[in-house]
Amino acid sequence: MLSAPSYAQFVSVEDSLEARLPNLHGKALADAYNIIAKENVYSDLDKLDRYANKADSLSQRLGYAEGRLYSRIYKSHAVYWRGHLPEAQEQYEREYSEALVLHLSEAVYQSLGGFFIASLRQNQISKAYAAQQAGYRFARQLTDERERDHYIIEWNILSYNYDIHINAFAKARKNLEENLAYAEQHRAGHRALGLSLKTLGDCESSVNHYRSAIDYLGRALEHLRIARERHHYLATLYVLAEIYGISGEPEKAIKLYKDLAAQAERRGYKMGVAEATGSLADLYFRQGKFAQSLGLQLKAIEIYEGIQRHLKLLYARKDLGRTYMKLGDFQKAISNFKQALTHVHDPIAGETFDAVTSTYILLSQSSFLLNNRPEAFQYVRKALNVEKVGLEFPVRSLNHMANLYLQCQMPDSASLPLATLTENLARIESSEDQANYFNTLGEWRLQRIDYGPAHQAFSNALTVAGDSHYADAQLAALDGLRQVEEGRHRSEAALAYLETYSTLKDSIYSMATSNEITDIIIQYQAAEKDRKIALLKDRERLQAAELRTRGITLWLVSAVLVVAFALAVVLVRVNRINRRNSRILLDKNLEIAAQNEEIRSQTQQIELQRDRLQESVHELQHTQAMLIHAEKMASLGQLTAGVAHEINNPVNFISNGVEGLTQQIEILVAVLKGYETVITPLPSEKYAVLKGIHDERQLAETLADCEALTKSIKTGVARTTEIIKSLRTFSHEGQKGFSHVNLNEQLDATLLMTQGEMKDRFVVVKDYDPELPKVTCNIGEINQVFMNIILNAIQAMHGKGTLTVITRTQRAAGRQKIFVEIADTGPGIPRELRHKIFDPFFTTKEAGKGTGLGLAISATIIAKHHGEIRIDSNESLGTRFTIVLPATQPLATAQALQDLDG
Predict the structure, then answer these.
(1) What is the DSSP string of 852-877?
(2) Separation of alpha carbons 398 and 376, rounded Å
(3) Using 50, 70 and 90 to split pLDDT, how confident is the model at 721?
(4) pTM above the 0.70 mark?
(5) Virtual CA dihedral for 570, 571, 576, 582, nearest 10 degrees?
């Protein structure tokens, strides 16, 4: 048989990752945060929230959709484990839809698997089945063979919960065996093999096949250790310890539970401490060590309350009440049972049906023992109602109802529930339930003085209980057999059953028996000493006359004995005081432990608040810088619009003046040409004078110069007018919010604005889509993005270069997307810096020559427009930025635009 393994040999993924966090950046850091969050799904929900929030915040800044999705899935797991099942189910459904869009296989499995389990726990069988089938369909359509096999195996393992929920134990076992064979045949990874073996071990344990269960679990541990699956590794150890406890090896179980608790406490794994402590308490309970069990149960409850595990508190409070029942304190038992039920959410979840049913039955038993029969029957009816809803057949409630009638000596009333149980005997699969049924049937037959069938029923109960180590059922069967033999007047057989009963009871309740024996011995020793003292005094009186000296000796001996007795009494009292002080010290230690835990919790809260404050300060600095930049850009836009307006007036004057001057010059030219036609007939001396003036003043050239000058002025006015128009377009004067614009025109305006920076050093290549649809956007912000990227491209190219601007349209899934590509022939961006270029305040320029905000603000603006910005850089070929924008904005943005137009 497998020797008890240890948790100490396990190395956590979380521990190694936390040490590497300072060296990670960007998406790698977001992924690390998410992995740590996932590692704490089953242990520390506060830590899960802290790291998932970090991953979400960082992924949002990076525009990393995959990182955001996983962080939200892990936060949904926290909602689920805190007991808010409908809310968790709704979140899983949203995240599943997004995972399908992104086609992330692991995200699909996590979200759909969460929806499946949440549906099962709420007893929504049809929803759970639909989720299960959707998971199989998604897995089978994966093109990668290894990935397909992996998720088919995962869903086979997860489907075990569905089979168990509908009580299909045989089907569950068969499916798990086939899944293990499938995993081994397709060479699945260590995680898949470990989980397959672990789940099969669980199944074997549930049907009392302990040897094969231990074999499966031992093999599972090795695979899970290699895969570094902490939660499943621990869960496997817990199942192993439980099997050791009920299969006759309690020492191994105790050692394993203590090792698990110590290792978990050493690394601050609260859930692990509580699980191991509660399981050890249950083992001590079964051994009859109720005082030890009680202390451990109280400790487990304190931890569960601290980490808000409501389902665990339901089970822990129920077990604590059961311990008080065994100690005879029924009022405290009832109080704890009622507290347990406060942790049940409405509607009752699938996996809590059994616990709620058991709690109502225990409440019924406690009420009956307090002679409150109306409440006893009221609680058993509640148990019956819960069990009817949650399970196929209400075995325990019917059995307990029959028991209540029998304890009230009402065998006729017990007939109906017993008849129902007998008709459905084949459906009672649990060995414990079978043993309890046979005991109840035997008691019913006994009260009807039907000794033969009663003996057969009790014998069946003894066989089933003995095979499964259900001690209480064994005791009940032995006591029933004793009563049967007494009814038959078979004294020897009755005595034999009584001896067996007493031996078994002594072995179970060894601590109680030991305490009784100790009390009897103390009483006996005290009485014996009193008798001896009295005897010595009698002898002293008889021999006083003749043996005075001997009498004195006897008196001395008596005195010594009295002193010895007094010392014994003192020692007994001291021992009692020490025991009382030990209990007080234990209570103080528990109180100090609670205070230490509270201090650790407060320290964690302070650290969490410090982390949040640091993130808030960083975000505030980023926001402040962006606001300053936005104000500068707004001021620049206003200034640009003002300058354009002021220049426009004198340009209009010049334009109008040039038109008039042109007309006047044309008149003068016409007049002068007319003069030339009439001076020819003049006398030669007058003609010579005029000809000399004409030649000297170069009249023909002057007229040509006048015409050229007016054309030049017209060209300058036209160019100035075009510049003013571009300034107005760039500043988008009078426009606020979203509007429909042509990005081709905006790019032309931005290029014209940057001509001064180009200084004829660059060739601009424009490849615009002539059919480009108008885009819904805030054009002031989009022009700001164009300006930032174009200026960065110009500044990146030293010497001469080529700037390429391309626009194109793409239609997919009924939606239009606009692509704007801006490429340069500069030196490119080094690989190690590419992930930082969108970070706020990051710049490669010299101090004082750049704020490092241009691209960060650009990324924020594009994200605001529900688009994305990509970068492709080659250190020898240059850099290309691609801006992707939807042609139309989502409904909320469109409504804002409609309000603006209205």
Answers:
(1) S-HHHHHHHHHHHTT-EEEEEEETTT
(2) 13
(3) low
(4) no
(5) 130
Residue 347: asked if its preceding bond is cis (omega within 30°), the reply is: yes
Instruction: Read off the tokens for 207.
Output: 């049907």
Query: Which amino acid would we find at residue 849?
Result: K
Among the listed residues 359, 293, 278, 375, the one whose alpha carbon sits nearest the alpha carbon of residue 326: 293
769, 775, 778, 779: CA torsion to nearest 10: 30
State in Å, rounded, how far the first CA of the chain is from the last one: 81
The CA radius of gyration of the chain, in Å to the nearest whole number, is 45
CA dihedral (129, 130, 131, 133) positive or negative: positive
Q: Which two tokens stand for residue 190?
A: 């260590």
By the 8 A CB rule, do 367 and 345 touch? no
* Separation CA 28–CA 23 (nearest Å): 10
Q: Give the DSSP letter string of 539-574.
A: HHHHHTTT-HHHHHHHHHHHHHHHHHHHHHHHHHHH
* Beta sheet of 801-812, edge-to-edge order: 762-767, 801-812, 815-823, 878-886, 868-874
pLDDT tens per residue across span 519-528: 433 443 444 4
- Whether residue 863 is predicted with pLDDT greater than 60 in this model: the reply is yes
Q: What confidence score (pLDDT) does residue 901 get?
A: 43
For the stretch 562-621, pLDDT in tens is 777 777 777 777 777 777 776 777 777 777 777 777 777 777 778 777 777 777 666 666
pLDDT of 196 strictly over 70: yes
Tokens 């009790």 — which residue? 458
**Residue 252 exposure: Cα atoms within 13 Å on the Cβ side:** 19
pLDDT at 895 over 80: no
Instruction: Report CA torsion sign: 363, 367, 369, 374.
Output: negative
Lowest-confidence segment of 157-161, 165-169, 739-743 by average pLDDT:
165-169
- Interstrand relation of 762-767 and 801-812 (parallel, antiparallel or unpaired): parallel
Question: Which among 149-153, 174-178, 454-458 has the top mean pLDDT?
Answer: 454-458
Q: How far apart are CA 409 and CA 397, in angstroms?
A: 18
> Over the chain, what is the mean pLDDT?
77
Closest to 608 (Cα-Cα) out of 18, 87, 48: 48
CA–CA gap between residue 28 and residue 835 (Å, rounded) = 10
Nearest CA-CA partner of 89 in 100, 77, 74? 77
pLDDT tens, 421-466?
Answer: 888 877 776 777 888 889 899 989 888 889 899 899 989 888 887 7
User: What are the residues facing 814 on neighbouring strands?
Assistant: none
Determine the Cα–Cα distance for residues 71 and 27; give it in Å rounded to an integer. 13
Weakest-pLDDT range from 271-275, 296-300, 446-450, 538-542: 538-542
Contact by Cβ (8 Å): 438, 395: no
- How far is Cα 856 from Cα 504, in angstroms, rounded to an integer? 77
Provide the β-strand partners of residue 881. Answer: 822, 871
- Token look-up 């290792």 returns 263
- 395-407 and 431-447 helices cross at what angle (nearest 10)? 30
User: For residue 23, what are its two tokens?
Assistant: 């060296």
Q: Are 89 and 119 in contact (CB under 8 A)?
A: yes
Q: Which of 675, 664, 674 is nearest to 707 (CA)?
A: 664
- Alpha helix (H) residue ranges in 772-840: 779-796
Find the Cα–Cα–Cα–Cα dihedral 812, 814, 818, 823, rounded to 10°: 0
CA distance 816 to 319: 62
Contact between 404 and 439 under an 8 Å Cβ cutoff? The reply is no
Rounded CA gap, 50 and 71, in Å? 10
